[in-house]
Structures are given as C-alpha cells and as structure tokens.
From TrEMBL:
Belongs to the glycosyltransferase 2 family. Residues 20-175 form the Glycosyltransferase 2-like domain. One of its GO terms (molecular function) is transferase activity. InterPro entries: Glyco_trans_2-like, Glycosyltransferase_2, Nucleotide-diphossugar_trans. This is Glycosyltransferase involved in cell wall bisynthesis. The lineage of its organism: Bacteria, Bacillati, Actinomycetota, Actinomycetes, Geodermatophilales. Keywords: Transferase. It comes from the Bacteria. CDD domains: DPM_DPG-synthase_like. The keyword Nucleotide-binding does not apply.
Length: 243
C-alpha cells in the first residue's frame, strides 16, 4: 500500500471535521470533479485507488485528496477497509463517510447527514433513496431493492428503508470497529449489519442517487440489484442458522 498526502482545505462553516472514504477503480473520467466538489466544502477525501489501470491516480492527486493505492484490485470492500483505516490514521476526523467516485452521490446530501448526526447525536446516519421521490429508478429495480431491505430488516435491530446505500456516515468510534472480511460486493451487507447493531443510535437521511449514463455504463444496474438481494439473503440465512 502506498500513500500520497495532499492537505485538504480547512473546514468552513460549522461542519465538524469529516473524512470521506472513496473507493476508486478506473474512474479517471469523473473522479476529479467528484473529489473537488467535496474538498471545496472543506471535507478531507481519502481516495483509495484500487489498482486502476487508467489515470485515476493522477486525477486524484490533482483534485486535492489523500491518495492510498492498492497495487492490485481488491474490490470495493477491500478499498473501503483500507480507506477507513487511513482516515483513522491520517486524520483526526470526528466523522468518517463513504462516498462513491462515479458521481451518483451528492455532496449536499452528505452535508445534510453530518448536520443530522450533530443535531441528533447519532452514531450512524445512512442514506436512503426511498424517503423521498428524488431518486429515479425502474420499477423492477425498486421492487428488488425493497425486497432486499425487508429481508435485511428481519434480523436487524434497526429497521431501514434502504439497506444497501453506499452513502454512509459514522462517528470515529464506530469507524474504528469496522473490520470488513469480504473484499468484493458482499461487503455491503456485512457493513450494514455491523452499522445497525442495537448499541448504536442509527438514523436514515433522504438522499438523491443520480443514475447517469456514465454510472450505468460502469456495470449492469439490474443485475447488481439482484446480487444485492442474494448477498443479503446469504447473510440472513447464515445469521438464522447460528441463532
């Protein structure tokens, strides 16, 4: 693992220090703009270049983030774990957030989540696409994601409206307890299960996930939704069998 440190701008306004962990894999087309938007708000971005073969590393450096590089691709779960550890090591941030590199997440939503955590004393604030009508998606995708959430809620101490959203905010103490085992996409179910323990004060916040032509070109959204449902089912079956 190698690092490239760049000082972020001082925090403005009343926002507490927040480190934003961003897994990056071949996102050179858009990642600079995404990072610059966050850095412009005074947030510290920890961008994990997860073995990219394009110029993502150069774009990260130019945007003013702290870059951590994997020599090979470990998957989003591995990148998130590395990023969380880096945030704890290299910053004194009160909060650690996770944020996608492809432009789907909105910085204004993250600012709102930070404010909610401050005002309500929450340990965890999770983004939800289903608390308002801003996020546009197909009916089938919506059905699959809501089904996944219902399955997740059967074994969760906190009932969510969106159990698989990549925009998250946790306190430093909660971040220090994160220990992801799954390196690939199955990490998301593992992480949500960790963050919704009964010992935490958990809230959701309405977020607008923007499914752009670019983000759709990076994968198969419907297939990803099916995989999400499968991951949650696998985790829940494992939990029930141990009960």
């Amino acid at each position: 693992m190698s690092t490239h440190g760049v000082s972020a701008q001082p925090l403005g306004g009343d926002l507490p220090e927040t480190a934003v962990v961003m897994p990056v894999y071949n996102e050179a087309t858009v990642v600079r703009g995404v990072i610059e938007d966050l850095v412009g708000l005074g947030l510290t971005v920890i961008a994990v270049d997860d073995g990219s073969s394009d110029s993502s590393a150069a774009e990260i450096d130019a945007a003013g983030a702290i870059r951590v590089s994997h020599p090979i691709n470990l998957g989003q779960g591995g990148a998130l774990q590395t990023g969380v550890e880096a945030a704890l090591r290299f910053t004194g941030a009160k909060y650690v957030a996770t944020f996608d590199a492809d432009g789907q997440h909105q910085s204004a939503d993250l600012v709102g989540m930070i404010s909610k955590a401050e005002e309500g004393g929450y340990d965890v604030v999770l983004g939800s696409r289903f608390l308002d009508g801003k996020t546009e998606m197909s009916g089938l995708r919506r059905l699959i994601l809501k089904t996944a959430t219902k399955v997740f809620n059967r074994g969760s101490a906190h009932k969510l409206t969106d159990a698989h959203n990549g925009l998250r905010l946790v306190t430093r103490d909660v971040a220090a307890r994160i220990n992801l085992v799954f390196a690939g996409m199955a990490h998301a179910s593992e992480l949500e299960q960790e963050l919704t323990q009964s010992i935490y004060r958990v809230a959701e916040y309405p977020v607008h996930v923007l499914y752009t032509e670019y983000s759709r070109s990076k994968g198969q959204p419907l297939l990803n939704s099916v995989n999400i449902l499968g991951d949650i089912l696998a985790h829940r079956v494992g939990t029930w069998s141990r009960a």
